[in-house]
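Structure tokens please, single chain.
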Amino acid sequence: HPQCSVFWVSAVSAATFTQDCSSIARELSILSEKEKDKDVKDLVKEYLSGGRAGRWLLIIDNVDDANIFSLSPDQSKHVAHFLPASPNGQVLCTTRTRHIATDLTRNGIIQLNQMSKEDSLDFLRNSLSEEKLLCSASITDELLTELEFIPLAIAQAAAYITKNPVSISEYLELLRNTHEDMSELMSAEFTDLTRPQSTSNAIANTWILSFEKIRQTDQTAADLLAFVSYVEPKAIPRSMLPPVPMKTRLVSAIGTLLGYAFFTKRDDNMYDMHRLVQKATKIWLDKHPLVKEEARKKAVKHLADVFPDAQDIYDNMPMCREYLPHALKIAQSAQGEDLASHYTLCKLLGRFFMCDGRLRECIYWYEQVFKWRKENSGEDDAATLDSEYDLGSAYRRDGRIGEAIELFERIVAIRSKMLREDHSDRLSSQHELASAYLEDGRIGEAIEL
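Here you go.
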């Protein structure tokens, strides 16, 4: 299109936007003496909106903050205010946030979907200094899958592999190793001449800027992001998300995270999160230790509050299965901590596994609860005896009769002293002990109980 002029403006900051507009004005020779006091952004807008400009394409790149010209959301300072309009021209804006896209155009949004595996492989190959750095197809596929086919993540990986140099399999091993290794890889800066000089190229740092922006503008979305960093990143049920006083705030917060592509929507009731976004969120939380600690405790308590009790209502089992991967991840992250909510969650996990017939897993969680209760409440405490009873029942169903009898004899001895003869807790522990005696062939003792 030789008759079409193409102009490029970086909207990373007010300074880059104004500087690029000045360059365009000089190129078009519209900076006259009488116009010297006029805003150069308005000059470019007026010129391109008029008939003298001919055919043109204006690209406004990186519009991730529409209010770069004002600290307050002043419409006269919004980026959209400086966009020209003409039948001879087109404006193409790029942004990572959907709500900005909807401010800039109502019906001209082009959603960029995930890069295909083939395009990702081509991009990796072109980003490496030598093609021989590519290893087997299966290992390369593993890396691209781990990087979720995100271009900036691929570019960062290629830069690291080229610079150090390491093989793709070694890079993949580092990425999957400790949180510290992963954090260092994702935060490593590298040179990318295709990106603005003033911006960070490290994917973690790029996203952290977005996280900070979200924290400034939508605290509910920031809290939601922190919560989701502690659960599994895939198949997150909407019903499991922390409650918000107003439903509209939750809808808006989810919309913010969808707009930044930190969330993707499976359907109206289920969301996914990129694994790399989750890892970057943890790097962000590492920079705010108090926020991190509070978010973790809130996540544990919330799962303990919402995880259904399978033992009380068997109809809860389908929801238990939906929540299970997330509850397990949170419970495992809080292992060994003196949090009552953690052991409430452990008990609920034990009950689910008991109802599901998964006795080894049931026993594992019941043992955690009993140990904590005994250390914190004492051996004769009612809550300790309840957890001991649960564990004894699991031992008996798993065929560990000797261990079950040992626990139930102790429970019966204590409850016989503390509770009246017809108390339900005393009777149920006697019943369990009698059942264990029966299974152990001790018929007389079973009959007596």
